[in-house]
Amino acid sequence: MIDRRCIWAMILVGWASVSGTAMAGERPPFGDFIGQLRAVCDRPPASSCADRVFAFFDTNGDGGVSRREFEAVRLMARAAMRQPPADISQSEHGMIAIALFVLESVGSGAVFAGFDGDSDGRIARTEMFADFHLDKRSFNDVVADPATVDWQAFAKRFGKSGDLFLPLLTTAGNGQAASGGSPAKVSR
Questions:
Q1: DSSP code, position 22
Q2: Distance of CA 111 to the CA centre of its chain
Q3: In angstroms, rounded to a whole number, what is the distance separating the alpha carbons of residues 172 and 170?
Q4: Which pTM was predicted?
Q5: 19-67 tens-digit pLDDT
Q6: Would you tell me which of 80, 84, 126, 179 could form a disulfide with 146, CB atoms 3.0–4.6 Å apart?
Q7: Beta bridge partners of 3
Q8: Is 20 helix (H, G, I), strand (E, B) or coil?
Q9: What angle, rounded to 10 degrees, do the helices at 108-115 and 67-82 form?
Q10: What percent of the chain stands above pLDDT 70?
Q11: H-assigned helices in 41-157
């Protein structure tokens, strides 16, 4: 199972290259990513999951995600939602669809700018995960701990609309903001 907040963080921040076999310029199939993401982000340390997310975006391996690379991932996810891979559960499909709606509502250019903290036209790994304290625990455990993610700052990266989308990070059914409460689990 993947913590609901982990899926949101990964989807809104990026998509992971979890096969470990993709060469620079190539991405594994989207369904493989989702299926393997469950295990990668559930194992410590959190930085392993973050590294793979960043590598999936940074296809040319130059240490920065360009607008072109960012947009390519968005288009790949959009195509996968039109023809959902069998590896994606209904709940994962729904969350990915909502995340794409958020990206497209705000605009991928605005979201890119929100993560490009130094405005150099590239998102560095440190910028991508600036709101996460990646410690020795799994990424799932990190995003479930209100002391290790600044969800308010993360939401602000989505511009004025960020506060509108912040409730989507709430735990299932209890109405608590993502900065509190127990994590909601997603199962296949």
A1: P
A2: 12
A3: 6
A4: 0.77
A5: 233 334 566 777 777 777 778 888 999 999 999 889 888 989 999 999 9
A6: 179
A7: 185
A8: coil
A9: 130
A10: 74
A11: 46-57, 67-82, 90-106, 108-115, 125-128, 139-144, 151-156
- Report which secondary-structure segment, H or E, holds 186: strand 185-186
Residue extents of the structural domains in the chain: 2-186
17 and 55 Cβ atoms separated by less than 8 Å? yes
DSSP state of 24: T
Phi, psi of 104 (to 5 degrees): -80, -30
pLDDT score recorded for residue 22: 38
Per-residue model confidence as pLDDT tens digits over 93-129: 777 787 788 888 888 889 899 999 999 999 999 999 9
Q: Are 56 and 33 in contact (CB under 8 A)?
A: yes
d(CA 186, CA 129): 22
In the block, residue with structure tokens 């921040």:
13
For residue 11, what are the contacts with CB-CB under 8 A and spacing of at least 6?
77, 95, 96, 99
Whole-angstrom Cα distance, residue 48 to residue 121?
A: 25
Tokens of 154: 């993360």
